[in-house]
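Researcher: Please predict.
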Amino acid sequence: MLSVGKRLFSTSGRILDTLVFVESANSKISPASLSSLNAAFQLGKPVSALVAGPEGESIVSELSQVEGLSKIIVAKGDNYNHYLAEELSPLVKAILSNESNNFTHFVTAASAVGKSLLPRVGALLDVQPISDVIKVESENTFVRPIYAGNALSTVKSSDKFILTSIRASAFPPQQITSSSAPIEEFSESITTNGRTEFVSENLITSERPELGAATKVVAGGRGLKNKETFDKLLEPLATKLNAAVGASRAAVDNGFCDNSLQIGQTGKIIAPELYIAIGISGAIQHLAGMKDSKTIVAINKDPESPIFNIADIGLVADLNDAVPELTEKL
């Protein structure tokens, strides 16, 4: 067991709270944030939510209906738009450091925003964050994967503030009911260095389910050879299943699809109900991103491919023949 931090954790007889940063995705609570809320409630403390900027304000009404939430803190201001970590981290520090709040825990999703925000908050507070948590053992003890998911580490923190990011695939989303949490506006003025600004973004839009939250995923790898085959074989199958499309790093690096579809250690970590791997050999980095899927189907002509070691259903066949046949029969 690894002990992290120097300062002792003390309750001092107070009711101690957990603060969760909640992200917006298309004016709705992001699925990863709902999973983070679920993990936060497992700490056994009152849970408050923090939303920021115009994106955060758009989800206040929905967030107020999350079951069990104590309150919602709203930080208005265009400087929090697009969730720039350099703007958010001083805000989080100010809220956590205010003793009247009694916050001891800060939780965020292990999303692109969370991975950028958490270490900055840790630096400002001089504490060691615990990233990519997959299990809450107690209020100060957590389990996280190491070595590309091949081993699990149990980490215990004795810091004054415990900062964690949550792997969304490890926790179900918190339920939204008819509750009504009180809303509190954060009005304190926060000064930042202002050296970072948002320039632009280029988002890939699709009518398919979002990869990180999809219950079914069809993924392609190097075995598809080129972009034309990738689209020709995967798109019809994904349409039949109403599934998201994903890819291995090899497929992305070879230009078969956009890098937003990459699954693996350096891409998205997912755990859908059904994962169909087509032409994917199963490199350790890819397995780290999908091995928690409930049912794994692998189609590959090489019977020695590592993907077959974790597949629930394996088909050794030429994908150019097997995939169209599967699509037709569906």
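Model: The first strand starts at residue 2 and ends at 4.
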